[in-house]
Design brief:
Blueprint lengths: L3 H15 L2 H16 L17 E3 L5 E3 H5 L4 E5 L6 H12 L1 H6 L3 E6 L3 H11 L5 E3 L4 H5 L3 E3 L2 H9 L4 H5 L5 E3 L2 E5 L5 E6 L9 H6 L9
Parallel strand pairs: 3-4, 4-5
Antiparallel strand pairs: 1-2, 3-8, 6-7, 8-9
Helix pairs in contact: 1-4
Length: 219
């Protein structure tokens, strides 16, 4: 199976051949400003205690982190939304490794600010077998130190390409999480934490799997 980052780099290469340089520069500016803000240094780190959360899946059923952790370690993937090709490619990578994850006695959830209907579309279109949860207003992502607000010039650009994030998310905040991956032990301790200001960079799921402790399969 191809490495995730290789797949993401291919998306980047294709984008650079299709999108005008002045438009690409808008996104590059946003990434640079986000990096310079120091947000990567403020995320909830490995060794910390993860905040508990209760969030709805696309059916409206409440999913609680405490219930999931009672079954074993938990991988939490924060993603921006179904409109982001990098995010859906990463979700598909976790989809393809889902059996390996379960063999290690672990579970995985995806969390994004997009509305429940959007998560329903995402799961259906990409065959995602694990819960996709709606974090309205990025309230949970905020507790993990991941949240930023899309600046006005990038909002204008998104609107210009018909990307209506307020519609997708169901609010006018323009808040998004950094794409991030966490591994949480059953006792709530963070075993792995990685997030990047550059949305085009993601950890390899196989590397994340290696951080999982040895647990008996819970089924």
């Amino acid at each position: 199976m191809a490495h995730l980052q290789d797949q993401l780099d291919e998306i980047t290469a294709q984008t650079r051949t299709l999108v005008q340089a002045e438009r690409l520069a808008i996104g590059e500016r946003a990434v640079q400003e986000l990096f310079e803000s120091g947000i990567e240094e403020r995320i909830l780190p490995a060794g910390a205690t993860a905040p508990e959360f209760s969030l709805p899946d696309f059916s409206g059923r409440t999913v609680r982190s405490t219930d999931l952790l009672a079954l074993g370690p938990l991988v939490v993937n924060f993603f921006r939304g179904r409109w982001c090709p990098y995010c859906v490619t990463e979700l598909e990578a976790w989809r393809d490794l889902y059996s390996a994850l379960r063999e290690r006695g672990a579970l995985v959830v995806g969390i994004s600010p997009q509305a429940q209907r959007q998560n329903d579309f995402t799961a259906s279109q990409h065959g995602v077998p694990f819960p996709l949860l709606t974090d309205a207003g990025c309230a949970v992502a905020e507790r993990f130190g991941l949240v930023w607000t899309v600046p006005a010039y990038l909002q204008k650009y998104y609107r210009g390409i018909l990307l209506n994030i307020p519609f997708v998310n169901g609010d006018e905040s323009w808040k998004l999480p950094l794409p991030a991956t966490y591994v949480i032990a059953p006792d709530g301790k963070v075993l792995y934490a990685e997030a990047h200001a550059d949305f085009r960079v993601r950890p390899e799921p196989e590397d994340v799997l290696r951080s999982l402790p040895a647990f008996a399969r819970s089924e």
